Amino acid sequence: MNICVFLSAADLDERYTGPARDFAELIGKGRHTLVWGGSDSGLMKVIADGVQRAGGRLVGVSVDFLEAVARPDADEMVVAKDLAERKALLLAKSDAIVIMVGGTGTLDEATEILELKKHALHAKPVVLLNTAGFYDGLKQQFRRMDEEGFLPVPLTDLVFFAEDGVGALAYLEEAVGVR
Question: Using one digit for the tens of pLDDT, what is the confidence trace for 48-62?
């Protein structure tokens, strides 16, 4: 399974890097492919290192202005001309999506992926991995949107909230039909 992971390229502390390493190991041991932003820095590097060490493949999609920080030993690296093309390529190359901790770029990717799913422009499973309660507020906001009628489809049809990598991967494997 090709798993797109949206996440930060920032250097973060152990409460985020530890769970990212654990999730990366699960991806790699499952012989899945990580499809990610291609960066060889911060949390993106942590997850790519873990997937590669555990036997998984790496498919990066960088963007021209970040090409200098792209991972040199990825199994495949594509360089998009801009962020919009990058997001489209990440989605096209994946079977499933996981949203991990990140800043405004990750939030942009998450909302676009959910908006596309809402309009049936893709049917890939999406997991919001709520490491250390990072997305508690967003989860609450999504639930409010659902309860107050702002979403034309049930929230459960758009995104699955997982508290750890084991739950995230189990959901994806079942949703995609991979074991």
Answer: 999 999 999 999 999
Q: Which residues are bridge partners to 6 per DSSP?
A: 99
The secondary structure of 157-173, three-state, reads: HHCEEECCHHHHHHHHH
Per DSSP, which regions of the chain are E strands?
2-6, 33-36, 57-63, 76-80, 96-99, 126-129, 160-162
**How many helices (DSSP H) and strands (DSSP E) are in the chain?**
7, 7
CB atoms within 10 A of CB 30: 19
> 3-class DSSP state for residue 86?
helix
How far apart (Å, rounded) are the C-alpha atoms in residues 32 and 12?
25
Structure confidence by residue, pLDDT tens digits, 123-148: 999 999 999 999 999 999 999 999 99
Question: How many residues are recorded in the chain?
Answer: 179
CA-to-CA separations, 117 to 70, 101, 121, 124, 157, in angstroms, rounded = 28, 20, 6, 8, 9
